[in-house]
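Box S2. Input/output pair 1.
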Amino acid sequence: MKSFLSLLFITASIIVFFMLVKPDYQALQDLRTDVATANANLETAARLTKSRDELYARYNSITKADLDNLKILLPDSVDNIRLIIQINSLATKNNLSLLRNVDYQTEQSATANQDPQAVQKTYGEFTLSFQTSGQYKNFLAFISDLEQNLRLVDVMKVDFSPAEQGVQQSAGTSLSYKVTLKTYWLKQ
């Protein structure tokens, strides 16, 4: 009878363990895992908040003049009209004729046929071509001004040819220039 009672208590305790204690124990383990995950997420959020605050502090330490220069260097939109006006003023400053035969191509139309990965870039490209005419020394000064300009511009191609008779401004004007350049802008 003692062994039967011992066997009965052992069986009852096993049944109680599996019916009552084990589900609660498993739920407790799941909660511990959830708490650990939540704590890890909180630590990550705290690190990101600290990093964000440091970046805000660095951004706020930049002077307004430097921010304006950065916006000129790499604008957040194409702003093709302002670019054409700026290049035209550089040309007239260097005694070249006004820009003519101005043509441009944005990245969307250029890359639709060429590079499918270009759409994933964080910056856009804007290709501009135009013609002007004048003396060679004036053209070199114009290219130098383009180089020193704040707006980031890559001269891709320059074609030289004799100037047309109607375009010449003086007897010293002898060349016509077709310039293709590329500039960049940040995508939003």
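Box S3. Input/output pair 2.
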Amino acid sequence: MQLNLASQIRRGILAVFLAGVVSIGAGCLVLPIPTNRVGEYSRKDVKPEVIEAFAPGRATREEVLLRLGEPDEFRADGSEYRYHWERVKWDIIWFVAAGNSGVGGDIPINKNHNLVINFDPAGVVSERKANAGFGESEYEKQIRPPP
């Protein structure tokens, strides 16, 4: 709860600062603010200790489903589950003012995570791979509507 309160205080200070900049005159402002929050529409239950719990040779398909729920992607034969989530690592706050008007916004910089779990024919985890990277994930590229 304190992290959320600290975030609210930081945003309040930023709002006061931006209001001061706007009242002084015209200009633009770009502020990168480090953060580490779960994406708005992201899974919220995938933590490193959860991933570690799915040890090859010990965890089963049922345990994975109970901990993480339905996978985002899976093979029809049930031999592979894929889970995707994101964390917002930076908020880029921008503001442009001129005269009596201004405009601003927030650009979140996401880090995309993927977890791939393979199962043997008996339904036991045979392999797990987790990776993360900035930019658009392979999953997002697949579900993006055509231009």
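Caption for Box S3: The chain has a mean pLDDT of 80. The longest helix spans residues 2-24.
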